[in-house]
Write a structure and sequence with these properties.
The chain has 9 helices and 11 strands. With 276 residues, the chain is an alpha+beta fold. A hairpin with a 3-residue loop joins strand 9 and strand 10. The two termini are 30 Å apart.
């Protein structure tokens, strides 16, 4: 199970630290940006799965530093799940491959209804196209070649819980899937980053996710010289691809619409999730 789609893996994301202590029984504590996070069910699900493989019992503390808005389509849940899988497996000295760890994170995302197909892209990096859905090692992922002088400017209005997609009507999900499949086909017919962004913007409009505020932000990005811009999936947020020479102009255009603290600039990450 999963979803087709595409997007950019960015350098600003989630950094995860795992600490373990042998114990009489397993326990898991999740901390996000310095605060206890009992709501982090996807991270907990990954840890629970790995602890069933471990030979001993442990108190586990998982600390995420999240440098992007949560719940706004930046993939923070997938980043946290993937980071937890890689870091905890290393701490427990489990002999699992990269794809095996990715599958654990992917299944946890689906089980907890926080995502459908972001783990695979997070593990690879770059400008991703998910051609066929599925967990790492099963789905088919491709990338668009990108020059090195590109950056992302993003601005966020409000989060949109991913669970709203899961809870939407079957008719709406069917409509979204149809638009999504047509969008991917149109991107593959002309696999350039410019066409990619243009078709993603069309999808955002046709699917009904686009808001007047995000439309305004997309137009501001285009006027400021961005290569292209579209709405995050899923969140009331916009990301624009820009040449480095235009990055400050695009960021300033965003700040004319949004408070400065809601605008981020970042590079594109081409390495994917990894141990630090």
């Amino acid at each position: 199970m999963g979803a087709r789609g595409g997007g950019f893996v960015i350098k600003r994301g989630v950094e995860t630290r795992v600490d373990i202590v042998e114990a009489a029984r397993n326990s898991i504590r999740v901390i996000i940006n310095g605060k206890l996070a009992p709501e982090a069910k996807t991270t907990r699900s990954v840890a629970e799965t790995l602890l069933t493989i471990a030979h001993e019992k442990y108190h586990v503390t998982i600390s995420h530093v999240v440098a992007v808005p949560i719940g706004a389509g930046f993939g923070s849940s997938a980043g946290g799940a993937t980071g937890t899988a890689i870091a905890l497996a290393d701490a427990l000295k489990l002999r699992l491959t990269y794809n095996e760890l990715g599958r654990i994170a992917h299944v946890s995302e689906i089980r907890c209804k926080t995502g459908l197909g972001t783990v695979g892209p997070v593990m690879l990096g770059g400008c991703i196209l998910t051609i066929e859905p599925g967990s790492p090692g099963i789905g088919i992922i491709d990338r668009l070649p990108l020059p090195p002088d590109l950056a992302i400017v993003a601005g966020t209005f409000e989060p949109i819980p991913t669970k709203k997609l899961f809870l939407s009507s079957p008719a709406k999900r069917s409509k979204i899937n149809r638009f999504g499949n047509n969008t991917l086909k149109a991107i593959l017919e002309e696999p350039s980053v410019e066409n990619f962004l243009a078709k993603c913007l069309e999808f955002a409009n046709k699917s009904g996710f686009m808001t007047e505020r995000t439309r305004k932000l997309v137009k501001a990005a285009e006027r400021a010289g961005a290569v292209g811009a579209t709405q995050n999936m899923v969140g009331e947020a916009v990301h624009a691809l820009t040449r480095l020479k235009n990055m400050d102009d695009v960021a300033e255009a965003f700040k004319q619409v949004l408070p400065e603290e809601r605008v981020i600039t970042t590079g594109i990450d081409f390495q994917g999730a990894r141990l630090l």
